[in-house]
Amino acid sequence: ADICFTSTMIPNMIADISTHNRVISYVGCLTQMSFFSLFGCMDDMLLTVMAYDRFLAICHPLHYVVIMNPRLCVSLLLLCVFISLLDSQLHNLVALQFTCFRDVEIANFFCHPTQLLSLSCSDTLIKNLVTYLVGAILGFFPMLGILFSYCKIVSTVLKIPSSVGRYKAFSTCSSHLSVVCLFYGSGVGVYLASAVSFSPRKGMVASLMYTVV
């Protein structure tokens, strides 16, 4: 999911740099936006599922094998794919309704959904609804799930009597936690800051952080 997410814009960016050509067709822009939403959302959903997996492994170790059986794993994976496809098609459906644009220039190195929506001359109600709905799907609920999982994990780890045991239990979460902080920290933090006082440079730096770094 990470490789596909990055591959939706990096090859095009490298080609643009080497040819000094910053033009993309409307169909190409919609295609790029669709894949960006699809794999970005999938990445997001999988991080949430991984937090749930860590929660079960640490807080309910004796029931872990029974609960996280192959059927549940496949079901969770299919749910991630379904939500990602829904998010991707929702963006495309809204974008295809636009009949005019205020400008043809996007202040970024790829077709970011929010920036494409902001260029539309159409009614702002639909744009705002889509933005808040997607924000809830991709931001609020997954982050709530991850925070809840880690609150329970920390609570359980602190009850372990030995420091070696605590370290061993929490060390299994370190890689996942670092990716969550990098992905959400750069994506949510900088974009919330830029929403208050938007600057194209800040937006591009934020995009570069969570799509490339």
Automatic annotation (TrEMBL):
Membrane topology: Multi-pass membrane protein
Domain G-protein coupled receptors family 1 profile: 1-213
Keywords, sorted A to Z: Cell membrane, G-protein coupled receptor, Membrane, Receptor, Transducer, Transmembrane, Transmembrane helix
Subcellular location: Cell membrane
UniProt entry tagged with the keyword Transmembrane helix: yes
Listed GO CC annotations: plasma membrane
Entries under InterPro entries matching the protein: GPCR_Rhodpsn (IPR000276), GPCR_Rhodpsn_7TM (IPR017452), Olfact_rcpt (IPR000725)
Residues annotated as transmembrane: 62-86, 129-148, 169-193
A Pfam short name: 7tm_1
GO MF entries: G protein-coupled receptor activity; olfactory receptor activity
Record function comment: Possible taste receptor.
Protein name: Olfactory receptor family 7
Originating organism: Cryptomys hottentotus hottentotus
